Recover the amino acids of this structure.
């Protein structure tokens, strides 16, 4: 108890961001001094529930000693399952509440809002039913009879000693009228949890008798020095102009200017009364990421945020963002030249080489003997850890429940959505985001199911006064209004964009908690593109013929299909026509290392001209799935796309003529100097376009038909041809997603039928998402009882965890290896060397021994998520077959990289059979799945 209280004081003084401290102390009459005292006291009394018969009976020898002092209790066996009614957190909550009511005259609800912090310190605040059940079994708190008085006396003495020791006795009179906002109750709970975990770490606070020779202060100093938590970022508002700010933070080329959207975003951040929510809607390639980071710096300085969380839609986009985040941090005042904690937050972060390098620099967490002579090796390690200008993946800030507490985090959106999921230790996730500026990228990519969680998270972020920056190419007006309403807490908030013309674009919308929205309408940069859109029959021979004509003088084409199956079918035909060396495939069904290699290859061949000179000089075709839609700065001469929702089609168009490439596009083949998009993936010959079956399965018929309807005036020489980017982006998106009628009269019957189906699906998504969604914020003073009741238990960034915040069917993830002809196992034979030039291809994987760390990590880097053919009923059969290859030395605890992983062993031809399907894998095409004839 003493250790936890001391740690809580240090966390308050040295680790907690200023904005979080402010939120707590503003709820208390004497401000910061009250808040610090409250945190220390609650951490000090958090284990008072252990002073009960239900807990003390567990160790017979200790229980006998207590009985000798008049504290009678039954044995643990005699108590039986009733002991589970009184977990020590709940018992502590009841004891503290009784003491505040009986000894200090508090009302029960006032006592509950403080005592629930003790009750929730193991991750789940107690429910009303649990509290009532314990009151019905008071013998678990105090043994009936003469001993009851002794138990009560001991409990009272402990509580009064803590109040005196931690300096709150005189404050309790004023605190009994306080109404703690629920967000403050959550933060207090999280701080007690962190304090408890640190103080309970035997490497930091050795158990007696080992620590008997050291005084309390000495033990605390040694532990805190050994923990060595990096302090939070303390941002200072940049005084430069927006142009100077961007030039200094992002290495702008000489003579380059910040774009109007970027300047307007920084200016708006400075104009806002207090930091709040800013939604940045701007075309692809306008530098929204850099704008968000610049706004985050301004917001952090003004709000007291101690870090940034950058949330992205996928692990691939998270990996791509992480080095950009590190580059920004290297030039950020208050971070450059200081020691700060960083983290990459997704389930495969340890396989990312940038992040792995940071982890390798972090030392172990262990107490430092402040008097003993330090060994030279330990001294060098300590100096490395304390070196200036160091970003570290701190060893203590790892694991699924602590990682988000690092100051600077890039990760998947799931990590943010988990803050809206009723789950164990949810308070830690709230503490993690409450101390940061949150950036949400690609906001248009999240469906109804995810939006249910996102909106609830935004309402809590608004209550914590967390600054948020939302980025999107464009949003439907209804979605923009939902985001503003969720964050501001004003149910009738109206966004300015709703009342302006639909062609208002780019658009910045801002709102502070409880406030009214404001808007800015910056100019787009001078760059614009006119894209001619033309229908193309969904026939592979027609496509090949057309590309042969278009590429007569060379050129680079991007063909985007809506399903992996269509990607592979298309690539097969085009290779026959153009040669395998001129066709590249990219989709999601590659092992992790191959997927990363694909991304780097695309950037090397088709990236910005100032960054690469490897662009093919002849003809080249990339056939890709949706992986090419976002976060890859690639540029093509011609686009072919399956019909998809119009906002995603516009994203795809953002890969078309993205860079200038010579005066008047003179470095492009002459016949490809006009930007064109060939729209396929549908039967255009029927009365109402009929999207292909795979596209309907992915996006739904309603979104596809409305997309076709709003594009109709632009197709094939229509009255509004071509599509003007960025001018047409917002009008197209608003028309596609608003409630109004679109399309010809003879389409309306099909659209109505599709709309009814869409609304049923949307309502079903919202209903299912709401089951485990966190409740709204209760009124100030209402205790957090039952805050995560009927939740999901523990959750993390695993396929199971992600399925709770994404509307996706369960899927299997496997580690792919190769079985040689002699039966031995090895890593895949084509893998490239790592960043240290170590060979990863064909590394031996012994079956009768634990693989080396390098071999195991290489194998784990070949993770692959199996497609949806292996979900549902097929999944059980697949798991049963995969578990036939069980290697205890791999899948046990001895090999953390491969522990509990399912192993998919391919034969020498990189083929296998699984659950009635034939699987073939290649580094060029990824995974191909076909149903076995016998099945």
């Amino acid at each position: 108890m003493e250790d936890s209280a001391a740690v809580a004081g240090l966390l308050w003084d040295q680790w907690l961001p200023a904005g979080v401290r402010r939120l707590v102390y503003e709820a208390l009459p004497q401000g910061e001094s009250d808040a610090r005292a409250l945190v220390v006291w609650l951490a000090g009394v958090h284990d008072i529930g252990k002073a009960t018969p239900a807990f003390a009976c567990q160790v017979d020898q200790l229980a006998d000693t207590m009985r000798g002092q008049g504290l009678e209790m039954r044995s643990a066996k005699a108590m039986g399952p009733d002991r589970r009614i009184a977990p020590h957190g709940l018992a502590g909550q009841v004891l503290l509440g009784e003491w505040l009511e009986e000894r200090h005259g508090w009302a029960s609800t006032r006592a509950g809002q403080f005592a629930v912090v003790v009750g929730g310190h193991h991750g789940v605040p107690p429910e009303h039913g649990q509290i009532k059940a314990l009151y019905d079994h008071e013998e678990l708190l105090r043994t009936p009879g003469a001993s009851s008085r002794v138990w009560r006396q001991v409990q009272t003495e402990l509580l009064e000693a803590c109040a005196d020791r931690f300096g709150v006795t005189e404050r309790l009179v004023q605190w009994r009228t306080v109404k703690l906002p629920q967000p403050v109750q959550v933060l207090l709970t999280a701080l007690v949890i962190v304090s408890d975990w640190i103080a309970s770490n035997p490497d930091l606070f050795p158990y007696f008798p080992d620590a008997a020779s050291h005084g309390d202060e000495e033990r605390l100093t040694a532990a805190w020095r050994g923990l060595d938590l990096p302090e939070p970022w303390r941002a200072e508002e940049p005084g430069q102009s927006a142009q100077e700010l961007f030039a200094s933070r992002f290495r702008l080329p000489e003579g380059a200017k910040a774009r109007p959207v970027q300047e307007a975003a920084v200016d708006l951040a400075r104009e806002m009364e207090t930091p709040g929510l800013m939604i940045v809607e701007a075309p692809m390639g306008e530098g929204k990421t850099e704008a968000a980071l610049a706004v985050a710096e301004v917001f952090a300085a003004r709000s007291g945020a101690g870090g940034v969380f950058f949330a992205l839609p996928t692990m691939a986009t998270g990996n791509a963002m992480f080095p950009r985040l590190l580059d920004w941090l290297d030039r950020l005042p208050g971070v450059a030249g200081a020691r700060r904690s960083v983290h990459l937050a997704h389930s495969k972060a340890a396989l990312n080489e940038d992040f792995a390098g940071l982890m390798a620099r972090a030392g172990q967490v262990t107490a430092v003997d402040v008097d003993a002579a330090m060994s030279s090796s330990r001294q060098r390690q300590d100096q490395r850890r304390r070196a200036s200008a160091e970003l570290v993946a701190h060893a203590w800030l790892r694991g699924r429940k602590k990682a988000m507490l690092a100051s600077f985090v890039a990760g998947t959106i799931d990590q943010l959505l988990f803050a809206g999921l009723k789950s164990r230790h949810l308070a830690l996730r709230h503490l993690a985001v409450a101390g940061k500026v949150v950036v949400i990228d690609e906001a248009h990519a999240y469906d109804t199911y995810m939006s249910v969680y996102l909106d609830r998270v935004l309402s809590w972020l608004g209550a914590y006064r967390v600054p948020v920056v939302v980025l999107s190419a464009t949003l439907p007006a209804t979605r923009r209004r939902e985001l503003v309403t969720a964050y501001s807490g004003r149910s009738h908030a109206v966004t300015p964009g709703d009342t302006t013309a639909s062609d208002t674009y780019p658009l910045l919308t801002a709102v502070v908690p409880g406030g009214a929205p404001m808007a800015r309408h910056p100019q787009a940069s001078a760059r614009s593109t006119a894209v001619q859109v033309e229908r193309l029959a969904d026939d592979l021979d027609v496509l090949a013929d057309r590309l042969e004509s278009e590429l007569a003088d060379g050129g680079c084409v991007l063909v985007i299909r809506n399903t992996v199956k269509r990607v592979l079918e298309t690539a097969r035909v085009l290779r026959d026509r153009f040669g395998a060396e001129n066709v590249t495939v990219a989709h999601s069904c590659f092992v992790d290392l191959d997927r990363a290699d694909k991304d780097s290859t695309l950037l090397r061949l088709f990236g910005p001209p100032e960054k690469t000179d490897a662009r093919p000089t002849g003809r080249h075709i990339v056939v890709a799935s949706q992986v090419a839609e976002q976060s890859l700065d690639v540029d093509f001469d011609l686009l072919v796309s399956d019909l998809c929702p119009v906002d995603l089609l516009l994203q795809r168009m953002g890969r078309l003529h993205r860079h200038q490439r010579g005066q008047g596009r003179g470095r492009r083949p002459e016949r490809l100097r006009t930007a064109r998009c060939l729209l396929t993936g549908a039967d255009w010959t029927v009365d109402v376009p009929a999207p292909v079956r795979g596209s309907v399965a992915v996006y739904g018929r309603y979104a596809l038909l409305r997309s076709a309807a709003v594009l109709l005036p632009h197709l094939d020489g229509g009255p509004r041809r071509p599509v003007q980017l960025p001018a047409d982006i917002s009008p197209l998106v608003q028309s596609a997603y608003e409630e109004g009628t679109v399309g010809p009269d003879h389409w309306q019957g099909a659209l109505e039928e599709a709309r009814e189906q869409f609304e049923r699906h949307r309502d079903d998504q919202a209903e299912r998402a709401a089951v485990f969604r966190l409740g709204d914020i209760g009124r100030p003073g209402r205790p957090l009882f039952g805050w995560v009741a009927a939740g999901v238990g523990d959750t993390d960034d695993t396929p199971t965890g992600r399925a709770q915040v994404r509307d996706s069917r369960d899927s299997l993830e496997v580690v792919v290896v190769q079985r040689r002809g002699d039966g031995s196992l090895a890593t895949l034979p084509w893998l490239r060397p790592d960043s240290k030039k170590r060979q990863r291809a064909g590394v031996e994987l012994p079956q009768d021994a634990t693989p080396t760390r390098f071999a195991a990590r290489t194998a784990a880097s070949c993770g692959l998520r199996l497609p949806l053919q292996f979900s549902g009923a097929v999944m059980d059969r697949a798991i049963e077959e995969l578990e036939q290859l069980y290697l205890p030395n791999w899948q046990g605890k001895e090999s953390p990289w491969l522990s509990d992983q399912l192993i998919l062993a391919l034969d020498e031809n990189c083929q296998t059979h699984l659950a009635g399907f034939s699987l073939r894998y290649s580094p060029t095409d990824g995974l191909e799945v076909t149903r076995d004839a016998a099945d």
Residues 400 and 796 are 6 Å apart (CA to CA). Residues 369-389 have pLDDT under 50 and may be disordered.
